[in-house]
Structures are given as structure tokens and as C-alpha cells.
């Protein structure tokens, strides 16, 4: 299992390029199952979750060819309608084959997924959406079993008790594009990754309108065809790098990002005292002092993303005062806090709130990564901790960041990956 060894204390300086969005690429790869023609996805990030998704597509019978960062998928069929547990358990987004298989073949069996341990993550809204389109959905032996003779357009609300669901919105969108009639999703999630998915589906010949708003309309078509697509930049990677720049009091130019997808995040960086300049698809982030305290409350888009909560907790752990961080999306998403406290942070958890009393400095320690974004937070903390920090179980990080250590090292950080069997 790989680990990172980080020697902290160097401000990050230089230019770094953001990869394509993991959360945009994963449903788009799933959507390639909707047609028998070849789809080409360019600039695909080299991530463990992407490799898992490609393994899953091969397992259901799609032809997958990878050449550098270009991935070509061809699924002429017949396909297996079952997404097996041994693949889906590695990644929650394995459910993204459910909508496409059900939509195209009227049949899908998908193992209940794995993913990060950040709290209970039900799939009721996915199932509700499929049922609204006319599928008979059952949970059997750890699998979701969905069947329908022909999906029919319907009106469905996907607003859950915790707000809208990104995954359910994407899945229902993918199931509905080949259904008969019109589907209206109310309470849809508005994340930019869903706009990107809709753009890809429309390139394939689908008729999806309103993605990025709370009401998405899908007019079913008889079949879809080939498409070529380059997914949007990863706003979470960009936000992570921006937090790292501010935390280390560095100056980093972040290329290939969409500042318009990061409005709330940029606002919080500025409140913390960082200077953020945006020009086109570039963002320049610098800071000269310890961050000012900032209160953050996670919300669905365009609110502050839960996927950046851990990294900003690390940033504010050395703030000049007390910050309050409220996690509204995933109840157990404070796994990084105990580890940050072992590095000298002073953070108390109170329900879904973390009270972060800024300390002057963090100290090094051996820490354990528990989930994807928590791992990033620990790496960031290591960049400013005095001495040698070891972050164990880096495989979580590799699920969603492409060689983060290389990007950080190119900005002057001392980060080394050590493999130990
Ligand atoms: C996606 C992202 C993940 C991000 C999350 C929230 C991908 C692959 N993953 O996850 O990185 O942290 O959005 O922005 O894109 N919920 C239900 N019932 C459901 C589905 C969800 O109650 O059927 C709840 C969840 O428990 C959670 C909230 O809704 O509290 C949001 O979850 P959701 O948006 O579905 O997250 P994911 O799509 O799994």
C-alpha cells in the first residue's frame, strides 16, 4: 500500500494544470452504454475510479480502448445486464451503469455500491426515479434488480431529505433519454457535472433541456449515436490546489479551471484573506498570512461543495481565530478531524459542526487517510506541518486525484510516494 512522506514548510509556487472532472467523466463513461456506436472521450483523467469504471464497462461487454488520455467505448451488444459486486464495491459511481442498461435494454442488475465511508448513502432516489419511469425495482441478494418492458416518460421529484441527489439526477437522465415520451425531473441537482453529462447526451442525439437547473426535461428518442466529448475541468481538484496555495502562503497559477464553477469557493478563499484573480480559464491564488477565520456550510451546487470541506478544514486549522464548519450533506464526513488533531489542530466536533480553533502551526505525525477528500486534507496539512508527515493509505487519494504528489512537487513541495508491497 502506498503512502506519502511530506516534509512541510515550503510555500507552493508556480503553475499547475487541472485534470478533467472525475465526477463528470464517470457518468459520461456510463452513458456510452446507451448506443451501439463508438463514443470518444478525450482528456480522461488517469484515476483509480476511472480505471474501475472502464473495468465495469468491459465486464458488461463493452469494447474499451485507451490511448493516452483518449478513451473509446463501443457497446454494440448484446451486453451483460449485470454489474458485478467485485467491481462496484470499489466505487460508488458503479451505479452509473444502472440508468443506461435499463434505458437501452429494459433490464439491469447492479450490485449495491461501495465508495467512501462518509456516512450512510442511500440509493432510494435512484430507485424512485427508475420506478417512476415504469421499472419494477427490487433489492435482491445485495443487487438492485430493475426491469421494464419499455420505460415511459414521467414526472418525478428527486428532492431528498438532504436536498437533491447528483447521482440520482444523472441516472434518471440517462434512463429517460431512450424512453417513450417526456420526463420531467423536479428537484434536480444543478451541479456543473450534470450540465456536462446533458451536453454529452445531446451530442449523442438525446433531447435534454434544463440541466443545471432544478427542472430537467427529457424528451425520449428512439436511438442514440456516436459522440466525441472533452469533459469539464475538475472543480474539486482546482479548489484543493487553491486551498493548498493559500495554506502554504504561496502563489499558484491554476490552469484549466472554470472559475464560474467555483464562485462560492473563491468567495471563501477571499474571506480567508487569500488573493484570487481569475482570467478566462486560469485562476491565480496567493496568500501572505495565516488565514482569517471563516464559517463554511456545505450545500448542493452552487453552495460550498462537501467535497472541499475537509481541505478547507485543514486550511482553517491554522487560521487566526475560530471557524465553524457545518456539514449538511454527509453526516460522517469528519474523519479527517481526528487525524488533523493528532497533527496539533484544535477542532471539536459537535453533531454536524466542526469548531476549528486556529493554531499557529501544525506538527508532523503519521496519519491515516480514511476517504478520498479526507486524504487530500491530510496531505495539505502535511505541506505546512513542521517535520516529516506520513500519510498512509494513499489509495483513497488515487481514486480521485491524478498523481497529486507530482503536481505538488512541481510547485516546490517535498512530497514523495513510497510503495510498500
Ligand atoms: C456525488 C459525488 C460526490 C459528492 C456528492 C455531493 C460523484 C461520483 N460523486 O455523489 O463526490 O460528494 O455528489 O455533491 O459524482 N441521497 C439520498 N438518497 C439517494 C441518493 C442520495 O438520500 O438516493 C442523499 C445522500 O445521502 C446525501 C445527499 O443525498 O446526503 C447527496 O447525495 P448525492 O448527491 O446523491 O451524492 P452522490 O451522487 O453519491
List keywords for this structure.
about 425 residues; about 30% helix; 2 domains; alpha+beta; UDP-n-acetylglucosamine1-carboxyvinyl-transferase, Chain; 4-stranded mixed β-sheet; binds uridine-diphosphate-N-acetylglucosamine
Kindly summarize this structure in a few lines.
With 421 residues, the chain is an alpha+beta fold. It is 31% helix and 26% strand. The chain is built from 14 helices and 26 strands.
Tell me the layout of helices and strands:
Elements: E1 3-7, E2 13-17, H1 22-31, E3 39-41, H2 48-59, E4 63-67, E5 70-74, E6 82-83, H3 85-88, H4 98-105, E7 107-111, H5 124-132, E8 136-140, E9 143-147, E10 155-157, E11 159-160, E12 163-164, H6 166-176, E13 182-186, H7 192-203, E14 207-209, E15 215-219, E16 227-229, H8 235-247, E17 251-255, H9 263-271, E18 275-279, E19 282-286, E20 296-297, H10 309-316, E21 322-326, H11 335-342, E22 346-350, E23 353-357, E24 366-368, H12 372-384, E25 388-392, H13 395-400, H14 404-410, E26 414-418
Parallel strand pairs: 2-17, 3-16, 6-7, 10-13, 20-21, 24-25
Antiparallel strand pairs: 1-25, 1-26, 3-5, 4-5, 7-9, 8-9, 11-12, 13-15, 14-15, 17-19, 18-19, 21-23, 22-23
Helix pairs in contact: 1-2, 1-7, 4-6, 5-6, 6-7, 8-10, 8-12, 10-12, 11-12
Q: How much β-strand is present in the residues?
A: 25-35%
For the record, the CATH architecture of the largest domain stands as Alpha-beta prism
Average pLDDT rating: 95
Shape: globular
Going by CATH, the homologous superfamily of the largest domain would be Enolpyruvate transferase domain
- The level of helicity is 25-40%
Q: How far apart lie the N and C ends?
A: 6 Å
CATH fold-type name of the largest domain = UDP-n-acetylglucosamine1-carboxyvinyl-transferase, Chain
Would you count the extended β strands for me? 26
CATH level 1 class label of the largest domain: Alpha Beta
User: Which regions have little confidence, pLDDT < 50, spanning 5+ residues?
Assistant: none
Number of helices: 14
Bound compounds, each kind once, are: uridine-diphosphate-N-acetylglucosamine
Amino acid at each position: 500500500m502506498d503512502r506519502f512522506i511530506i516534509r512541510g514548510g515550503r510555500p507552493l509556487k508556480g503553475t499547475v494544470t487541472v485534470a478533467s472532472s472525475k465526477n463528470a467523466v464517470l457518468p459520461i463513461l456510463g452513458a456510452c452504454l446507451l448506443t451501439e456506436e463508438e463514443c470518444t472521450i478525450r482528456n480522461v483523467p488517469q484515476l483509480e475510479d476511472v480505471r474501475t469504471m472502464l473495468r465495469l464497462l468491459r465486464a458488461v461487454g463493452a469494447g474499451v480502448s485507451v490511448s493516452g488520455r483518449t478513451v473509446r467505448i463501443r457497446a454494440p451488444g448484446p451486453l451483460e445486464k449485470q454489474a458485478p459486486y467485485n467491481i462496484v464495491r470499489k466505487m460508488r459511481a458503479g451505479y452509473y451503469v444502472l440508468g443506461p442498461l435499463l434505458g437501452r435494454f429494459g433490464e439491469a442488475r447492479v450490485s449495491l455500491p461501495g465508495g467512501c465511508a462518509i456516512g450512510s448513502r442511500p440509493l432510494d432516489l435512484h430507485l424512485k426515479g427508475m420506478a417512476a419511469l415504469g421499472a419494477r425495482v427490487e433489492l435482491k441478494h445485495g443487487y438492485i434488480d430493475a426491469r421494464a418492458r419499455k420505460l415511459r416518460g414521467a414526472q418525478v421529484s428527486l428532492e431528498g431529505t438532504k436536498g437533491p441527489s447528483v447521482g440520482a439526477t444523472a441516472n434518471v437522465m440517462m434512463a429517460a433519454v431512450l424512453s417513450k415520451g417526456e420526463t420531467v425531473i423536479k428537484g434536480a441537482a444543478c451541479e456543473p457535472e450534470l450540465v456536462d453529462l446533458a451536453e454529452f447526451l445531446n451530442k449523442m442525439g438525446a433531447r435534454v433541456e434544463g440541466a443545471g437547473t432544478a427542472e430537467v426535461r427529457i424528451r425520449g428518442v428512439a436511438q442514440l449515436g456516436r459522440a466525441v466529448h472533452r469533459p469539464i475541468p475538475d472543480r474539486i481538484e482546482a479548489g484543493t490546489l487553491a486551498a493548498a496555495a493559500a495554506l502554504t502562503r504561496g502563489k499558484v497559477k491554476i490552469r484549466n479551471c472554470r472559475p464560474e464553477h467555483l464562485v462560492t469557493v473563491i468567495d471563501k478563499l477571499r474571506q480567508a484573506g487569500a488573493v484570487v484573480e481569475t482570467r478566462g480559464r486560469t485562476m491565480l491564488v496567493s496568500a501572505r498570512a495565516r488565514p482569517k477565520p471563516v464559517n463554511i456550510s456545505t450545500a448542493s451546487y452552487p453552495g460550498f461543495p462537501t467535497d472541499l470541506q475537509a481541505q478547507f478544514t485543514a486550511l482553517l486549522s491554522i487560521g487566526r481565530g475560530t471557524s465553524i464548519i457545518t456539514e449538511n450533506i454527509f453526516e460522517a464526513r469528519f474523519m479527517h478531524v481526528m487525524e488533523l488533531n493528532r497533527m496539533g489542530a484544535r477542532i471539536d466536533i459537535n453533531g454536524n459542526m466542526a469548531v476549528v480553533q486556529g493554531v499557529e502551526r501544525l506538527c508532523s505525525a503519521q496519519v491515516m487517510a480514511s476517504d478520498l477528500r479526507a486524504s487530500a486534507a491530510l496531505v495539505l496539512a502535511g505541506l505546512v506541518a513542521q517535520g516529516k508527515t506520513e500519510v498512509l493509505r494513499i489509495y483513497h487519494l488515487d481514486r480521485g486525484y491524478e498523481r497529486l504528489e507530482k503536481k505538488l512537487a512541481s510547485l516546490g513541495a517535498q512530497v514523495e510516494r513510497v510503495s510498500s508491497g
